[in-house]
Amino acid sequence: PAIAGNIPQDVTERAGENAVFIVYGLKETPRTADRIKDLCANFSAMIRSIRNRFPDMQFSCTMGFGADAWSRLFPERPKPRELETFQEIKGARHTAVSTPGDLFFHIRGRQMGVCFEFASIIDEKLKGTVDPIDEVHGFRYQDGKAIIGFVDGTENPAVDENPYEFAVIGDEDSGFAGGSYIFVQKYLHDMNAWNALPVEEQEKTIGRKKFNDVELSDEEKPANAHNAVTNIQDSAGNDLKIVRANMPFANTSKGEYGTYFIGYAGTFSTTRRMLENMFVGDPAGNTDRLLDFSTAVTGTLFFAPSYDLLETLGE
Length: 315
Ligand code: HEM
Known about the structure:
It is built from 9 helices and 14 strands. By secondary structure, it is an alpha+beta fold.
């Protein structure tokens, strides 16, 4: 962890084998705030228990709050600087929609059973004080591929970089140091159109080789490739990164094939700039080719407090 006393939640973990993504809305009841605060106070202990019982399960769970929920639950507290209701991004051809969400859980584990168990414990604790909004069960596919057949997650900060540097708030918003902005989007893919595209065209869409994940050279890679539009730098030329843990999901008999996008960032403006490049283009019109085959049906911003702040929120 980057900052002693502000231990981050598990915001830099790999995507993992299985994941459950749950979005809840808060119900207006006299018990709502107390129940949520109770969960905040107990959250680390609940995770500790599962890890202790299943040490080999690679279990983790992060918990986040939407902007409205934060103000309603903790009216006396300041808000993290960049926590706001996600403002829709509307380009000429594509839209990053904004959809509601008050509480968010990202549960990861080697087996779905352990994810389910934790989800059911949370749900039991919140019963009567929340409404379900969305739940997606994601799985690891082949060698970590998105459902469109390309390895997803390669360029995440790792090996030679400290992922906390990108995923976690630092001194710039010191009251929230160790926290992270979670942005999620549920995408549906037009697999008929995608599969009709020759593999070389698919590779130009992603910017990498399909078979072995090798990156296309600068000459081969078009300006509207996904990994060209999302590769961004600050004014000094330093790479701006986020930590992604996307998962495929599917309902094959319904023809539903999707990617649950999840990005953790210490500055939401970084994620937002990537989205603007994808949906509007920089220059405008140079939109992400991947969006011709992918539609965002949700889009919500949450804030994941450090474990230390989470405990304080429970008081
Ligand atoms: C790279 C898939 C949405 C940000 C990639 C790669 C794949 C991929 C296959 C190449 C391998 C890698 O480096 O991970 C998808 C799919 C999406 C999606 C299927 C949903 C339809 C997004 C969104 C963002 C994003 C919404 C940002 C808000 C990035 C970044 C990279 C990347 C930063 C690395 C770029 C680089 O090489 O520097 N994505 N992605 N992706 N994606 Fe996505």
